[in-house]
Design brief:
twelve-stranded antiparallel beta sheet; 2 helices; 12 strands
Length: 185
């Protein structure tokens, strides 16, 4: 019994002394969309740069992965899928462009999309997709939520507060959208 207690104590000390390495928001990381049929598509990158007590974020989408669509008098960068046309909609207003491990809102706002049926005419801004990000030990994982992109047509009064809070987003049933997950690794 004494041996077992010593062994258990040693295991606890090792775990405390060597905690699991957490994924860090540093450098340039890939942005990948994951489809419900198991495919992955790297669509861009995000650069993380220390910025005081926050981390600056700069998103770059890879235009070669997108096709130009002219919808409702505006050009969109889109991906055609079997079910829908999926378009990136970058947040159009000045913002802090920074995050913390517990506040990923401005990065989430840089990764908004909209979808429409291939045969529909024009942009369907009420069909917005917002990927709610979670920090994991392997990177950031985003799950799609529904938003109305018409809400960001005009600049907000307070540019430091992200407009899409919890009350402006709705969960989406799994596998309803073609791209059902977004990762940053």
């Amino acid at each position: 019994m004494k041996f077992i207690l010593k062994y258990a104590f040693a295991c606890v000390v090792m775990v405390i002394a060597h905690p699991a390495m957490a994924w860090e928001m540093t450098g340039t990381r890939s942005i990948t969309l994951h489809s419900r049929d198991g495919q992955s598509l790297v669509v861009g990158s995000v650069n993380f740069k220390p910025q005081g007590n926050r981390i600056g974020v700069s998103v770059h989408m890879d235009d070669a992965r997108f096709k130009d669509f002219f919808l409702s008098m505006k050009e969109f960068k889109c991906i055609e899928t079997p079910d829908e046309v999926f378009c990136h909609v970058p947040y159009p207003h000045a913002n802090p462009a920074s995050v913390t491990p517990t506040d990923l809102a401005w990065l989430e706002h840089a990764l908004m999309f909209m979808f429409k049926a291939p045969k529909e005419f024009g942009a369907k801004l009420w069909n917005g997709i917002y990927y709610r990000l979670e920090l994991t030990d392997k990177g950031l994982v985003g799950w799609p939520q529904a938003i109305d992109l018409n809400m960001i047509g005009a600049p907000p009064d307070d540019k430091t507060v992200p407009p899409y809070g919890i009350g402006e987003r709705s969960d989406i049933a799994p596998d309803v959208r073609w791209f059902n997950k977004l990762t940053i690794q």
